[in-house]
Amino acid sequence: MTTSALRRQVKNIVHNYSEAEIKVREATSNDPWGPSSSLMSEIADLTFNVVAFAEVMGMVWKRLNDSGKNWRHVYKVCFSTPRQ
Q: ENTH domain location, by residue (predicted)?
């Protein structure tokens, strides 16, 4: 496990993020590779639940407002869409 993955897990626990928020954080991380199609599919499936939809969109909105060194968050939110 990399240090960034470990740090991400600690933040998830400390901030008490839900399963949906954790998946969005993982999909829009600063890692140089994109999210897996299975992860994107899981996020898309979560949006059919009203509560999970609000959590996903809240985290997406938070990521869209990132700037500076977190430019990958914005990039991945904008260009990592699940393909049907």
A: 12-84
